Amino acid sequence: NNVDRLKPPKRGFFETIFCCWRNGRTKSNQSGTPIDGSITPPPIQGQPRYLLPQIRPSDMYKKCMVIDLDETLVHSSFKPIPNADFIVPVEIDGTVHQVYVLKRPHVDEFLKKMGELYECVLFTASLAKYADPVADLLDQWNVFRARLFRESCVFHMGNYVKDLNKLGRDLQKIVIVDNSPASYIFHPDNAVPVKSWFDDVNDSELLDLIPLFEKLSKVESVYTVLCNSSSQSQLTSSVSHHNQQELQQSQQQQQQQQLQSNSSDVNNT
């Protein structure tokens, strides 16, 4: 599938978790510099010091929001989609292909609101020749102050990781929104995970997250609110607790439905 060449390779959730656990004790780059957010690595010789340009005066007191593209804001496919929001031509090996793009529900409202609250940065592990024209069509309000693509990622254990140390912003004031845990394994406590989206028209994930991001925009440090997983055991416990909550909610709903059904039967009788 040609679209897979444009997007980053995907790993299963538990494979990603295992990768995080296996490397959690020695998080460092090739030079031995920690990449857990405690130290900003020195710039690589001949490359810009940071990935982001100097902050704009209008964003001086805003936090930085790093937003993923594929399966977070949109879903793309080379297969024709009748109700596609965009159709983007992309050249691959000398041949132009049509990429059909679906917008996630409430993405427009989400982007406009985040543009008011944050210095927003698009950071995707996809190729620029695909992601850049999609962003042109998606971002009608110039919300994204910068766009970063695959070449700005760190290739680590088979994953394209978004190293927030390289942005040139205070880590306490950065939040990353992404559907892939592998993308933020260096900085799990800066992340707000979102479920992957493909075509569910009833999805409300982006809309539901707005109150959280409104709160985050006002705190001194995002770490006072976000504490996703400082260790593998905490992450596993969190996932297990979430699954147990879902199971309990499902059981409660079934019990309520059964009670309502019994009550209805009694009334009918």
UniProtKB/TrEMBL annotation:
Keywords on record: Hydrolase
Residue stretches spanning the membrane: none
Class of this enzyme: hydrolase
Domain of life from the UniProt record: Eukaryota
Gene Ontology molecular function terms on file: RNA polymerase II CTD heptapeptide repeat phosphatase activity
EC number: 3.1.3.16
Gene3D superfamilies assigned to the protein according to its UniProt record, in alphabetical order: HAD superfamily/HAD-like
Catalytic site positions: 68, 70
Site (Transition state stabilizer): 124, 162
Reactions accelerated catalytically: O-phospho-L-seryl-[protein] + H2O = L-seryl-[protein] + phosphate
Record-given protein name: protein-serine/threonine phosphatase
